[in-house]
Amino acid sequence: MTDPLRPDGSPKLAALSLRLAGTTGTVAITAPIADLVISGWTGRDTASLMEHAEELAAIGVARPRRMPCYYRVAANLLTTAPSIQVVGGDTSGEVESVLIGTPAGTIVGVGSDHTDRRVESYSIAVSKQLCAKPVAGEFWRLDDVRAHWDALTMRAFAVIDEQRILYQESLVSALRPPDELVADYLGSAGPLPSGIVMFCGTCSAIGGIRPAARFEFSLTDPVLGRSITHAYDVVQLPVVS
Asked: How confident is the model over 112-122, as a mean pLDDT?
């Protein structure tokens, strides 16, 4: 099925209603969404990258031929909803910083690359397509944090067996900086084009990757003293054979 078309024949874009928080206040914006890109294997440190590779190998996921790698998935998987539905009990979230190219410049927020881990063992690309991709409804201008980017912290908590536990925690400095990822993906330096959403990679899970009934995540800026947070419940649908 082709994308719906505007009267001039160009594809219609999806849109995401967001809050853009700046140093002078918060405004409502609508971000056009055309493409959703999930970046993988984006670690700066080789040892940490191999740790994540071993973590995934433990659940049967082979390492890719190229690092970083970029998986295109359906843009309509993006959601700011407080819950998602998944099939079966083999999915899990992972916190990532998120870039969106807009007509007014690149904005940055935080999301969860929720993934089907059973399917991931034989196809990472397919597994990325099977689950919604939650994002927080608040974003910042990348220009406001670029100078102190490495000071930002990603953190995630998971509710597992009715216990809320720290699931992930890392400075974003463990991963490649956003401008480097964008240039590598596009093949040349420059801003992220309007309409492209890019998840920028994740860090290792504390205690290993595992499913949770609820996933909470945040991006914290200690320099400007602010955080973006979001949480969602995971509703399991039955596996019917």
From this structure: 92
Three-state SS at 91:
strand
Which region, left, alpha or beta, applies to residue 49 given φ > 0 means left and ψ of -120 to 50 means alpha?
A: alpha
DSSP structure class, residue 130: S
Task: Report the 10 Å Cβ neighbour count for 207.
Answer: 12
Cβ proximity of 181 and 42 under 8 Å: yes
pTM: 0.90
Predicted confidence (pLDDT) at residue 121 exceeds the cutoff of 90: no
Residue 213's alpha-carbon distances to 26, 116, 184, 216, 232, in angstroms, are 31, 14, 35, 10, 9
Tell me which of 3.30.70.980, 3.90.850.10, 3.40.50.720, 3.40.50.10140 is the CATH number of domain 14-235: 3.90.850.10
